[in-house]
DNA repair protein MmcB-related protein
Amino acid sequence: MMDESLSCPPLTDGTALAVARGTLRLFARHDMAGILEVPLPNGRRADIMAIDGNGRIIIVEIKCSRADLLGDAKWPDYFDYCDRFFWAVPAGFDLSPFDGEILWPGRTGLIVADQYDAELVRPAPVEPLAAARRKAETLRFARRAARRLSALSDPVLGV
Amino acid sequence: MMDESLSCPPLTDGTALAVARGTLRLFARHDMAGILEVPLPNGRRADIMAIDGNGRIIIVEIKCSRADLLGDAKWPDYFDYCDRFFWAVPAGFDLSPFDGEILWPGRTGLIVADQYDAELVRPAPVEPLAAARRKAETLRFARRAARRLSALSDPVLGV
């Protein structure tokens, strides 16, 4: 079992990576194409950023310990860069905090995932970004994903 | 030497792949992020589609034989999906056809490439797409690049 007294920085351990993989599989079934660890202009980094077929931007914050969840005061910053926001946690995680007002249950979706798949426990409402912001973020996403692909096939372009 | 009497379908042989790699390196230096073999809504497939920092879409058609170049009547279809269009050919290719009016020298750029690098022989003018078309293509590009990345790290998502 994970030591819940310690925070685990997202995507640096196996649990977070497993949650990311399961979430991307869920998203793929819902026609949402995502990439991992996306730096944002505000200095934050989205664990997952995805775009659906209508161009809506989704951000997922992965939490794998209760301490990390309750100790993070910066997650509302993500709302400036997405149309929908989800929490994603590993199977077995205590979900009761997500009903607390401090975690905005009316504005955040909730996903429970493992390395094989994920369950959409609570959908996220759409809170539309300004069109100019969505356009800018879509462009950044497109170029970042392309650079990552190129880097995989050409070491000279690796970053 | 290549048999110039035969067309070589882009990116299926080493020469075309080498031209693609060199071109992507050139593009990276010019802050253009590209991906290969992008199907378009009109049924064509762009050898390279790239997006620059201003969101402009670039399409590159790779030609590795004179017969393929002069026998292709469909390349003007690309102009419906890009702001700038380039030809890219391998080093040693006879460039004289690109000055002929039939290949629109005033509207097409020209790149000469090998596997190591590429030279911008003639810049391509910008012929701006309608904003709605550029938006739709940027979205398709973003989602396609993300799906390709996911497929590389998760066989379940492979396509």
In short: Residues 1-8 of chain A have pLDDT under 50 and may be disordered. The first strand of chain A starts at residue 33 and ends at 39. The helical segments of chain A are 14-29, 66-71, 131-153. The CA atoms of residues 76 and 103 of chain A lie 9 Å apart.
